[in-house]
Amino acid sequence: MQDEYRTVARAGVHEIEINRSRFLCALAPAATEREAQEFLAAVRKEHADASHNCWAYVIGADAAVQKAGDDGEPGGTAGVPMLQMLLRRDMRYVVAVVTRYYGGVKLGAGGLIRAYGGSVGEALDTLGTVTRRRFRLVTVTVDHQRAGRVHNDLRATGREVRDVRYGEAVTIEIGLPDADVEAFRAWLADATAGTAALEVGGEAYGDA
pTM (2 decimals)? Predict the structure, then answer.
């Protein structure tokens, strides 16, 4: 697994105009290829009257899935430059759809490549990106008497508390870098006089 990846901070649309043609770049995070395709379908439906709805998406922290489409523009002038821009910016789990409303002036192949790629680049700058880092899910089970202090200490030391559940005991789920797990195990034993249980789970990604 990759240690970290970047993705778009939020879904949104950025518009530019080039030689009277309007280019609307819609960006969104997409956890799966299906989510990317559903977003594309929604944009196509919203802009069914547009000249073109070209698209590209990258799925996987290692960019395992990379796909693009020109939607009627000359081959290689729309989807590919969009995809190249996403990859150049190290974007992952993201889908981009550029809707073009033709303004009557032909841009030529070079102009189209610059317009579609540039539209994605400007949209990324406008909407912003976030870095997500790989971590290990760790579950701490502690008695009610010590739970408050443990919870406060976790927050004070900048640990990412993901969930807290109250039952017969208190269960606190946190995210840790792999390298910190053993040191955390020792800290927890010391902080709770050995009364807390620690369960190390799977991996996930969270905000860096």
Answer: 0.74
141-200: pLDDT as tens digits: 999 999 999 988 888 888 878 889 999 999 999 988 888 889 999 999 998 999 999 999
* Rounded CA separation 145/170 (Å): 9
The encoded tokens of residue 6 equal: 């970047």
Question: Which contacts qualify for 107-110: CB closer than 8 Å, 24 or more apart?
Answer: 107/18, 107/19, 107/21, 109/74, 109/77
What is the DSSP code string of 99-137? EEE--S---HHHHHHHHHHHHHHHHHHHH-EEEEEEEEE
Rounded to a whole number, what is the largest CA-CA distance in the chain? 75
| Residue 165: count of CB within 10 angstroms of its CB | 11
**Is there a contact between 82 and 50 (Cβ–Cβ < 8 Å)?**
no
Structure tokens at 197: 């249980």
Cα 18 off chain centre by: 29
* Torsion angles phi and psi, residue 157, rounded to 5: -95, 10
Q: Is residue 151 within 8 Å of 165, Cβ to Cβ?
A: no
Q: Is the pLDDT reported for residue 1 higher than 60?
A: no
- Report CA torsion sign: 82, 84, 85, 91: positive
CA distance 125 to 110: 22
